[in-house]
C-alpha cells in the first residue's frame, strides 16, 4: 500500500525514483523487487482501433486494422495488426499481447459491434477473459471526450 501510494504520488515514476523516495522514510526489505512488482506496465490498459488501412500484398490491396493498447500508468503504446474486426481475430491479438506484456488487471475499450451482442461481449470472449481473471469495461463512444485517454 505504501509503495503504490508513493508510486502514484510521484505520477507513476520509474522504479529507481520511486525506490529512492521510499527510502527517505522507510526501509523495505527487497525494496527494488517489491517496487518493480507493484509498477508493472500494461497491467491496466485502454484499447482502441486504427483503420482500415490499405495494405499492398501479393494478390493486390487489402484492408487491415491495428489494435492500439495504451498503458494507463505510463501511457506507453503497443500496436498489433488485425486482419479483420472479428472476435476471433481480436482473441489472437489479445493472446499475442498477453504473451509479450503479461496478464491484464483491467481493460477499458470501445467494443466494436462485431465483438458484442446486446448483452455485452460475445460468450467466447467473455469466457476467455473470465478464465484469465481479467475484467472488461466498455467505454461508450459518445463519452470519449471525457474518458478518451488514447487521443493525447
From TrEMBL:
It holds the Pfam family Integrase_H2C2. InterPro entries: Integrase_H2C2, RNaseH-like_sf, RNaseH_sf. It comes from the Eukaryota. Residues 2-38 form the Integrase zinc-binding domain. One of its GO terms (molecular function) is nucleic acid binding. This is Integrase zinc-binding domain-containing protein. It comes from Onchocerca ochengi (Filarial nematode worm). The lineage of its organism: Eukaryota, Metazoa, Ecdysozoa, Nematoda, Chromadorea.
Amino acid at each position: 500500500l505504501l509503495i503504490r501510494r508513493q508510486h502514484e504520488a510521484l505520477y507513476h515514476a520509474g522504479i529507481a525514483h520511486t525506490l529512492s523516495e521510499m527510502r527517505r522514510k522507510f526501509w523495505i526489505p527487497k525494496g527494488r523487487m517489491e517496487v518493480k512488482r507493484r509498477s508493472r506496465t500494461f497491467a491496466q490498459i485502454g484499447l482502441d482501433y486504427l483503420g482500415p488501412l490499405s495494405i499492398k500484398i501479393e494478390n493486390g490491396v487489402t484492408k487491415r486494422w491495428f489494435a492500439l493498447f495504451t498503458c494507463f500508468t505510463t501511457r506507453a503504446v503497443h500496436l498489433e495488426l488485425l486482419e479483420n474486426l472479428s472476435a476471433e481475430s481480436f482473441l489472437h491479438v489479445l493472446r499475442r499481447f498477453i504473451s509479450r506484456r503479461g496478464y491484464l488487471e483491467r481493460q477499458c475499450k470501445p467494443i466494436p459491434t462485431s465483438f458484442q451482442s446486446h448483452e455485452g461481449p460475445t460468450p467466447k470472449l467473455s469466457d476467455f477473459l473470465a478464465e484469465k481473471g481479467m475484467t472488461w469495461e466498455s467505454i461508450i463512444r459518445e463519452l470519449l471526450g471525457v474518458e478518451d485517454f488514447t487521443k493525447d
